[in-house]
């Protein structure tokens, strides 16, 4: 069988059925999509989704949140924003519906040629491409050391909490550090109260010298992480970022 995860593919526009949905948090849902023409993608890439909403054509980008090792379908995970258009539509879409998707897109990609260590920095819904990278490495049992630092306001906002926790307990090469910015007391190892700051970041990634660093989230988060990494003397060539803005 072809290893689809290693193939770069041109974006294809096509119909895709929503075969299942799963609630992740109170404002976030995962949609499992089965495209008419299965296609290959690389961990970290995204698709666009097009729909007619209130008589207007709306197109938005969503990172693929499942690993390309799962070949028959792909998943996207959508957080409904405060003033939503597409994100509300996708949070309410019934199973069995069809969506027009196009992809894969993007150069925020990790592949086994890249490195044997990787640092992933995410906030909020910015976890989606990072979860795919972790899942891909674990599914393929690659000898790659992963350190994920994930920031959310509270525990009930953490997307993929159960699976990330389970992986961190079962895979010795996966370190999961959770930052809860609005929780005053955090009683768990590898979970911190407050934001990712320069001191914590420097300490947690000290074993990851020369590892590429992938940052994903809203612009404020991405910019502040970049600033801290620069203060820590990290070579900017190691840093890859995916900035989301509406
Ligand atoms: C490459 C890429 C990948 C993306 N992947 C994902 C993904 O996996 N999951 C996901 O939920 N979103 C993702 N986004 C964001 C997504 O494309 C939309 O911007 C988001 O769903 C809001 O669209 P909307 O039509 O509901 O709101 P809009 O009508 O476009 O805007 C509503 C408001 O929400 C703000 N906003 C936009 N995105 C967010 C956000 N993520 N959190 C908080 N506020 C926001 C905007 O600044 C705007 O003020 C991605 C964006 C890019 C560029």
List keywords for this structure.
alpha/beta; Rossmann fold; 6-stranded antiparallel beta sheet; 5 helices; globular; disordered N terminus; Elongation Factor Tu (Ef-tu), domain 3; 246 residues; 2 domains
Could you explain the architecture of this structure?
This protein is of the alpha/beta class. The chain has 2 domains: 4-105, Beta Barrel (Elongation Factor Tu (Ef-tu), domain 3), CATH 2.40.30.10; 117-243, 3-Layer(aba) Sandwich (Rossmann fold), CATH 3.40.50. The chain has 5 helices and 12 strands. The strands form 2 sheets. Strands 4-3-6-1-2-5 form a 6-stranded antiparallel sheet. A 6-stranded parallel sheet has the order 10-9-8-7-11-12, sandwiched between helices. The longest helix is centred in the last third of the chain and has 13 residues, at 219-231. It is globular. The N and C termini lie far apart (39 Å).
Topology:
Elements: E1 12-25, E2 28-35, E3 46-53, E4 56-63, E5 74-79, H1 86-92, E6 98-105, E7 117-123, H2 128-139, E8 145-152, H3 161-170, E9 174-180, E10 191-193, H4 198-204, E11 213-217, H5 219-231, E12 239-243
Parallel strand pairs: 7-8, 7-11, 8-9, 9-10, 11-12
Antiparallel strand pairs: 1-2, 1-6, 2-5, 3-4, 3-6
The chain binds flavin-adenine dinucleotide.
Flavin-adenine dinucleotide is lined by residues 46, 60-63, 76-79, 81, 83-87, 124-125, 128, 218, 242, 244-246.
Quaternary state reads single chain
Mean pLDDT: 93
State Rg.
Answer: 18 Å
Structural class assignment: alpha/beta
